[in-house]
Design goal:
Chain lengths: 134, 134, 134, 134
């Protein structure tokens, strides 16, 4: 597995909860935003896909929480993608900056609904093909 | 002014931030949810309005923060509505339970966009008419 | 496995995203809120634990998304708990109402940090003991 | 009035609601994040203030919504600050990029609670002094 996309982000204080650390649900926001920026980097808009009847949805999510992020922390969000049958499987890991400590490690299985029905999405297949291992 | 709708809610821990109190943006969520439940009580679905090209949007918001809510707090959300020209003006106040202490006092001006254009919305006019003062 | 706690909730419109369905991160909010309400039902406050130096944190999360919730939907959130070594493992499933269709199925591994160190938490052990299978 | 701080941001898709536009409460998040980044730019950490018993809290908020942001939009968040008695009054406006169209215009009155009591905060006074008009 090799990461094919990455972006840096910074914790926003409203993302922290009463424990003073980033609330877990926000890691899901971070990795969703990373996938959508990855799509955008490939010339594909998630909102535009939806408007054309193509909905990429998450079928399964697996997250391991390693080191909590806190107010003021920056981090890098890295992404790899492979195809398994009809699914796109994303490996999405966050690392704290500058020390590179793992924050979360996750796997996200997504599928496409085309006009409400599970289907292959040629547009995504074409965009991602160069990233699939031979 | 008299309140015409009210509902009880309870703080959810993820709504609290690192200060240990409900993050301000969540009060906006609470009062939005109250308006939508009020609509629903009148037989109107916000999502259904949107699907038919009618978007109720907030034009102006004024909130005074009185007493912060904390983990475990319950509160009642009260709403009044009046019409001013093309605007529906909601008075929306939250009170902590059981002591009734004011949490926020707010005024929310909303307007309707019908197919993207500012317009009267007969459906809302009819639903709310009984609540407008003579 | 048998569920030992359940609560009903309703989708709030602000929880839906541009696909018109509840954004995935909100399911994590729903199940966190359910765990905290379960604690409260056992006489334990999450905020109070934190104030006393005991932080229950999620170590691993596994969610399978079955049927998306939409504006207006109600659902029941059910919880089971077992102990595995130092971890509390929660099974947390959501079912749409009134048809009972599965919304998500999830497993949440949590651990306790006592003054920042991984440890057993006697208070939770005592509270949950009656729910652990012999 | 002159703006003394600005930062660029981009809409994240999860911030959009079922109307396909950024949910109003997120504008409150954007301007809170801008204030906290402004503090940080002045060498002050909001979380650190809290840890030392100083809580900057919003007393009043006034927002006018001009043009909704959508998926893919970037915007600049600008801030001005003045002192009025015990309050810091922030003017916070968002402008869409690249066309500069006003998104929201807002005024945020904040006060400081020092160990729970309304008080002047010398640290903020010193940091902001250079921005107050003579």
């Amino acid at each position: 597995m090799r990461y094919v996309y990455e972006m840096e982000m910074q914790v926003r204080d409203y993302e922290c909860d009463l424990q003073g650390i980033v609330n877990n649900a926000n890691y899901q926001h971070y990795i969703e935003h990373t996938r959508h920026q990855f799509l955008r980097h490939e010339g594909i808009s998630f909102a535009d896909l939806h408007a054309r009847g193509i909905d990429a949805v998450v079928a399964r999510l697996n997250m391991a929480f390693k080191t909590p992020l806190r107010s003021g922390d920056s981090f890098v969000s890295r992404l790899a993608v492979r195809k398994e049958g009809i699914k796109y499987v994303f490996t999405q890991d966050l690392f704290r900056l500058p020390d590179g400590k793992p924050v979360i490690r996750s796997t996200v299985d997504t599928v496409c609904l085309v006009n409400g029905r599970l289907d292959h999405c040629e547009e995504l297949d074409r965009a991602f093909a160069k990233y699939f291992e031979p």
